[in-house]
Amino acid sequence: IVPVIFTPPSGTVFTPGTTRVVTATATDASLHYARATFTVTVLPYPTPPAPVAPWSVQNIGAQPVVSGTAQHDVANRVFLVSGTGGTTGTGASGDIWSGNSEGFTYVSRPWTGDGVFTARVWSLTATDSGAKAGLMFRETTATGAKNSIVYLSPSGAAVFQNKTTTGGGVTSSTATGRAAPEWIRLVRSGNTFTAFLSADGTAWTQQGTAVTHTLTGTALTVGLAVAPRTGGLTASAIFDNATFLTPREAWRFAAFNTEADTGTAADLADPDGDGAPNLLEYALGTSPTQAASSAFPSVSFLPATGSVLQLSFVRSRTDVTYIVEATSDLTPPATWIAIATNPGNVGQYVTVSDSAVLGPVTPRRFLRLRVTIP
Q1: In terms of DSSP bridges, do strands 366-372 and 103-110 run parallel, antiparallel, or are they unpaired?
Q2: What is the pLDDT of residue 214?
Q3: CA 43 centroid distance within chain
Q4: What is the pLDDT of residue 3?
Q5: Is 279 helix (H, G, I), strand (E, B) or coil?
Q6: What's the number of CA atoms in the CB half-sphere (13 Å) around residue 97?
Q7: Three-state SS at 10
Q8: How far apart are CA 74 and CA 95, in angstroms?
Q9: With contact defined as beta carbons under 8 Å apart, do 235 and 125 qualify?
Q10: What is the structure's pLDDT at 15?
Q11: Which of 203, 228, 247 is nearest to 115 (CA)?
Q12: In terms of Cα–Cα distance, which of 233, 97, 266 is closest to 172?
């Protein structure tokens, strides 16, 4: 059996109920191929169910006559969101803007810690060219709450917008000429947020500069926001490839196309066979699929001493604990003593010197780096 995958040309639109002529080619390992042409009927996309916990759907700010709705295709990472806000005849009351000028549909889940949030805005249908569909992080779901959002508008604008004080003004950075389908990404590191745009989901461009908030409390959420801008109207957006991941899950997803701690993507797996399990590769910033020892920890003598060992490594992450340990005897069960925990700063090449001096009393000494998940 040879698998056949049909990839339509970029920009191809499939209308349910119509037919398309498809030519498929299957090639085996010996480069033998078979080609066939056949007609397919385009079926409508089955309507997914409403989001379930931890996801929730609500209207933020000015309440519309009809609340917004959402569907979530978990298996395919797709969200369909019908965004409403504000009331008819009140202008731009269905917006995401400064002060308490908000009226939109928010599909969200609770979140703590850092995160990498990604989605492709596959389509956005709206009457108002200033409608918005994007990724949002909020301090609370109350009107006027602090938030960061990266969104796309029918006008072709892709915007990174921030409200850093409750009920305060907004700052924004805008890119033009960006039309759906467009990839968007929002990254949280501490309370600093950075936005990125991409046409293909592979090559990313930072939009504007990073913005730092002071976020407090336990009601932090992240999700998808859709605003019609004009009160009383509806904006409909389809998001696909939607992922809401911790930094370690995002690293796994990029390397193995799964965020699950299983199989070759598991923390203790070593798919490239270089002796470093995935968790250590993550901590050091090395590739888990390409064997390379040049960035691994190294042991040397402290210069000008010849009797004190030191261990050097790259401290690449904020979400793991780095422990340098030492022992004088490897005979099981060896007793390892911690001599440094999280030394240096993130992003630096760190060197830790041993606490013992080699000599008649201590003729042997061994150092190692242990990485754990808090």
Answers
A1: unpaired
A2: 92
A3: 31
A4: 62
A5: helix
A6: 16
A7: coil
A8: 28
A9: yes
A10: 74
A11: 247
A12: 97
